[in-house]
Structure formats: structure tokens, C-alpha cells
Amino acid sequence: MNLKQLAKELNLSISAVSKALRDSHEISAATKTAVIAKAKELNYQVNPFASSLRKQKSKTIAVVVPEIANNFFALAINGIESIAQERGYHVLIYLTHEDCQKEVSITKLLQNGRVDGIMMSLSSQTANILHLEELKEKQIPLVLFDRVAENIDCPKINTDDYKSGYKGTQHLVEMGCKNIAFLSISNHLSISNKRKSGYFDALKTNGLKSDNNMVIECSNDEEKNRKLIKKILKSKNKPDGIFASVEKLALNVYEVCKEIKLDIPKNLKVIGFSNLQTAALLHPSLTTITQPAYEMGREAASILFKIIEKRGYNLIMEKTTLKSEIIVRESTGN
Amino acid sequence: MNLKQLAKELNLSISAVSKALRDSHEISAATKTAVIAKAKELNYQVNPFASSLRKQKSKTIAVVVPEIANNFFALAINGIESIAQERGYHVLIYLTHEDCQKEVSITKLLQNGRVDGIMMSLSSQTANILHLEELKEKQIPLVLFDRVAENIDCPKINTDDYKSGYKGTQHLVEMGCKNIAFLSISNHLSISNKRKSGYFDALKTNGLKSDNNMVIECSNDEEKNRKLIKKILKSKNKPDGIFASVEKLALNVYEVCKEIKLDIPKNLKVIGFSNLQTAALLHPSLTTITQPAYEMGREAASILFKIIEKRGYNLIMEKTTLKSEIIVRESTGN
Asked: What is the mean pLDDT of residues B132-151?
């Protein structure tokens, strides 16, 4: 029995029930009596911890991200920090290093009232979201950004991943590619899967065969990634185009091509999601799909503060989609 | 009158005086009486705030850095975070964006007991260190790393900046450069000045004239930096080699050379301090002086925890110098 269910039973808003339980002056005595009676009847227990949390503001928010030595997350954190600073909030940063267990233990740690709210981008290994559900149960405001989970109700900020996957693939086709490989970072992450769906659909639209062998499941282990990339680039059915679903994988492709002396873009065209400042200075310069990372951070933080300040956690379920941009450079040229 | 001076007057260790003032069982009654009498005589006031700080551990440390979208700081934070996680500490991150005023206000904010200790790398605009002295007065453990201040007593972690400046310049000379420019990020920062001293001395050793016009004072404004770099590269006395004292400036050189179609390394050789993963993939690949950023972060955090746990703040004045490495690539080749 949680607050939401109790509210439903009473045919009241969550906010009204919550206020009644906290003996707010905004709620009539009659309503308070009704709420308390129903809560007793249904054995609903006010979570004292969550309640104390709401009262004692820590003026601190947490950002949980897979890594920090990554241009997308660094820029997103810059955006988050700019909003937090305006509001006089402190920012705690936690790195999961793409380890789901670490993500779970950080989440548990954050249930103790240390922070007023959490922004999170999931690790590539996160397959279930029980730890996120726990935060919700404890009424700790949560906003997901970029690497979001589909099956949890909370505000989510992402970019147009499907469309970007489609447009990036379409661009490779237009530049003459007929056999395009897709480098995936995780089959758990919805962003990776959406980008892949866009890739598959663009192949189909263009009458190209889609082949699961052309989807390479990469990981956080760059050494392994380079081996996988080398293997496919030396195979019989070698691709003439590669779509890297994250920045790191595009760099791994460059490293392998340098090693095996494969000419980009002559023998292989490459496009990758990336926020790399040096994309234009690479050899050759890299065609990228660039996400508005800084703006995503600002947007995620703004929504989090809206929840923290309005205390209407369950009421805000915004899903915000920002647009990415294709920047065409030499790596997909002729 | 601070604790250090009081201890000196009493001819006791700071730790003993501090314990006496806190009525520790480790100190004899006679010593306590003497300490309290002297403290009264000299009008020394125990800072109740600092004292409460020592008792109520927040299990949180702060990291104050100029920026996060920078490979050196991102890697250093990874190192700090790895140690903090081992110790069960939380890490608060503050960005100064190279703004000294922001650094001062963050430092003031951190005097309220929110953190058990602070690690800091100074902004390029930080010319005086009163705000750091205040932290010391309040006995808040402070460790400086990379961008340290020379004139404050606290543990400092840096790399061999003078030597790296010397060796980098020597390398350019050996590759045939006779007119080498030095791009400085700040004339306040000791790291920038040490690197510059190494540059000047290497010129001298090699019988090359040093010329203050060849030292370009750059800033956080990349647009301005590019203008300054373009100006000198188009001047009569244009350099045949450039030493970039920080990564960002090396990239600005690449951007300008791309724009004005100046061939690196044929017309200009470039070396830069950098922790860029893509250094090897740039066009041409960039010769770098690479600092052990991750290790510096780990070292700084280890020393901070030593101070926090031993509570012997004033007693630890370690200065640790780690070695940087020159990695020769195409940008300084023939």
C-alpha cells in the first residue's frame, strides 16, 4: 500500500493525502479524519524517513552517471551544475563505471536523506530497476536523463534516439554504403536499442538487408571492443560503413583502422554519436550526431528542482525530448 | 593568534594544545591548566565551529576544480573518487569555471561543516589566497593538487612542471625549432610559471634568444586565444614551434592551423600538455606531455584522508611530485 494507492482509494489527489497525513493547515479537519481512518484501515504507514526528508532539506542533489571522463557526461554535469549554482544547491557526483551493482549500492546510500533529489543516467549493465522503484517508494525525487529506463514512472530527459539512428544510417546509405555495421554499447539500454531500431528501419526503407551479425555488442572493455571491430573489419562480409552508437566506440574504430591501415573514408565510412571537441581535428575529421548535452543537464536539473520545490513528486511525469544534430565531416565523405 | 602560534608560545605541539583545549584524557591536568591560562592571556579563542567540525564527520569531501569537461580534471576526479569510494566517503564537486570570485564563494560555502576536507586546483585567475588561509584558520583540511599556491602551508600534489617545460622545449629544439612560442594560461598560476621557466632555461642552454613577445598570455576565452594564436602565426617573427602549456591551447593551435592552412609539423611543430585520449588520432597526432592525472587524484585523496583521520592537520605538509611523460608523435616530427 503506497501513497498513490491510498489516494486512489480516497478519490483524492496524492498531494492532498500527503498534506493531510502531515497535518497541513491547507486541509480541512474532516478530510484529515477521513484520510487517517482510511490509512489505518488499509494499514498504510507513513514513511517517517521520507517525511523527515521532506522537512529537512539538505540543499544537495546527487548526479549518478556511468563515467566522467566522457564529453557527453562532462557537459551534462556542467549544465546541471549551472542550474544548481543558481539555486544555491550543492552537487554530489557518483560514478558507476558502468557497473550495475555499484549503481544499486549508490542508490541505497542515497536513501538516507543526504540529498533532496537525484539525477541519473543508467549504467550499460542495468537490466532491472528495483533500485529505482525503491527511491520512488521513499519519495525521493528522481529524474532520469539520456540513459533512461522505459518502465518506470518519473520525468525523463532524452534526445531523439530513434530518429538519430535513422538519419545517421540514411546518411551512410546516401554516401554509398551498402553493408553497414552497428556498434551497440548494451542491449539493456533503451537509448542503444532505439538507435538500433532507427538503423534497422533506415536499412529497410532503402531496400538493404538487415543482418544481426552486423550488430556488434560492445562493452566497457576497450581492448575487447577493438578486437571485435578488428574481427569484423577483416571478415569476408566486411562492412563499408560503421555506425557507432557511442563516442568511445567511434574512437575504437579509428584506433583499429590506424592499426590495420584501413583508410577512412575510402574503405570505410564512420559516423558516431559524439560530443568530442576534437571531432573536427581527428584524422579524418569525424561525422557526428551531437547531443545537446549541456542543455539536457540544465533541463534535467530544472525539472528536478520543480519537483523538490513543489513537493509534487508523483505529479510530474514530464518526458522531454531534445534534438540531436548531424554534423557531416570527412569520415563519411568521398 | 592561531593554534600554531599558541603552540609555539607554549613550546608544545599543535596537536597537544588542541587536545588540551578539547579536554582530552590524553593530556595531563597540569598541561591543560597551563594551556588554558596561556590561551586566556593571549586572547586565543577556540573556534567552536572548527571544533564541532572535528567531531561531527560529514563523511563528505569537496573537490573544487576549474572545469570538468577537461581530460586532466576528469581523470583526476576519477582517481579521487576511487579512493573516496574505498573509504565510504561522498564527493561534492564544485566548478569555478576559472573564475576567482566563484572560487572564493565556494570556499566560503564550505566553511559551514558540510565537508570533512577539501581538495582544490586553483582557477587561472586566483592571484591571492586569503580564502585558503581562512580554511586553514578554521582547521578545515585542505590539499592542493596540480594548480597549487606556493605561499600557503598545506599538502600539495603536483608534477615536475619545470622539468617538463624544459624537456618539452628541448625536444622542439632537437627537432629543429629555432623560434619557439610559449602559450601561457595564466601568469598567476605557479604551474604555468614553472613550465615557462623550464622553457626559458632550455632556450638559454641551447643558445637561443628568449623573447617575451614569444610568450602569449592566453585565457579561458577560446575565441580570443585563437585570435592571439592567429596573430602570432601571421606575424613577421612567426614561430616554427609552439609549446602549449595546457591541452585546450594545443587544440586552439590546431584549429587555427586548420583554418589558415598551416601545415603541422612541416611549418610549425606543436607540443602540449595533454591527457587527451584522442591525441594519437588527431591530424597530425599530437606530441604530448602527459601528467599522471588519475594517480594525482588518488594521491591527493589519500593525503586528505590521512589528515582527516589523524586530525593532525597542521602536521602534514607533504609535497608530492609525480612525473609527467613526453609522448612523441607526428606534430613534432619531420
From this structure: 91
